[in-house]
Amino acid sequence: MKTASADSRKARLTPEGEAHWLRLKQHLEWSETFSLGFIFSSHPEVVEIFKERLAAIYRARVTKLNTSLPSLPEELTTTLLPLLLNPSENKVQLKQPFWLDLSTESGTDWQRARVSFLIRLNEQRESLRRTLHSPVILILPQKERYDIKTLVPDLWAIRDFSMETEQWVKESPLQLPSDHQAPSRILSQTPQDKSMIKEWERLMKRERKDQGFLFAAQRAFKAAMKTGQYQLAASIAKSQYAFCIPKKETPEALRDLSVSL
Questions:
Q1: Taking the domains of the chain in order of start, what are their residue ranges?
Q2: Which residues contact 211 (CB under 8 A, 6 or more apart)?
Q3: CATH 3.40.50 applies to domain 1-176
């Protein structure tokens, strides 16, 4: 498989990219059993940064990020599919996450192999859920984003997370603003956007928060991202994380939060 052409170690994410990275990281931290995520991308540098950051996190644990992929298109169904459907006992116990970047290979053979692999995975989705007790992140070409619902509707229906990347890379080192610095430039804001953010701010002041706080935070996160308030979006995402982790929320309980990304 090809990798990003530029040196991803020198690249940095924009504030918007950092906010989406945080959501991806939190999704994996919440996933205590099988979960399925889709990332649609035509930005290999962004994908490479995400992968390297996750790999660094899992290197510090007994579990490592599984990024292995076949070198030939036909091996997607002959090698990779059996690996997912019949994992070794060791991998089951380790709950090793799978990072499957199928977005970089082009050509008719790879496109056909990708379609065949996804269709087979769609057919075997229940076996996948029963057997594999770890997250699976599928990275697919951005141009195929709107074909997935038709191609593999059942697989798409059980997803826990989805994301479409943009050009979130900047070459110069990124210095994220502190809470005391001026906020991001606010783009056009509708009254509804303002209302959703104010509702999150109101609920944040409460000592006791319930499940409704999570949904209010999700709406506020979308409004902040849409209007370019990336620092605020990151703060909202952190507030969700702080609420969920002490309560040990399951991925199923948080499905509505992550599926819309």
A1: 1-176, 178-261
A2: 253
A3: yes
Task: With H, G, I as helix, E, B as strand and everything else as coil, classify residue 45.
Answer: helix
Sheet strands (E) in 70-215? 98-101, 135-141, 161-164, 169-170
Name residue 36's beta-bridge partners: 136
How far is it, in rounded angstroms, from Cα 105 to Cα 256? 32
Helices (H) and strands (E) in the chain, counts: 13, 6
Phi, psi of 253 (to 5 degrees): -70, -25
Question: pTM value?
Answer: 0.67
Residues 6+ apart with CB under 8 A from 123: none
E runs forming strands in 147-228 = 161-164, 169-170
66: DSSP letter: B
Helix or strand (DSSP H, E) at 40: strand 35-41
Contact 43, 51 (CB under 8 A): no
Per-residue pLDDT of the chain (261 residues; tens, 9 = 90+): 444 444 554 568 898 899 999 999 988 888 888 999 999 999 999 999 999 999 988 887 778 899 989 889 999 999 999 999 988 887 777 788 999 999 988 889 999 999 999 999 999 999 999 988 899 999 999 998 889 989 999 999 999 999 999 999 986 544 444 443 444 456 677 888 888 898 989 888 887 888 788 888 888 888 888 788 888 888 888 787 677 655 444 544 444 444 444
Q: What angle do CA 207, 244, 195 make, to 5 degrees?
A: 60
Q: 230-247 vs 191-204: helix axis angle to the nearest 10?
A: 40
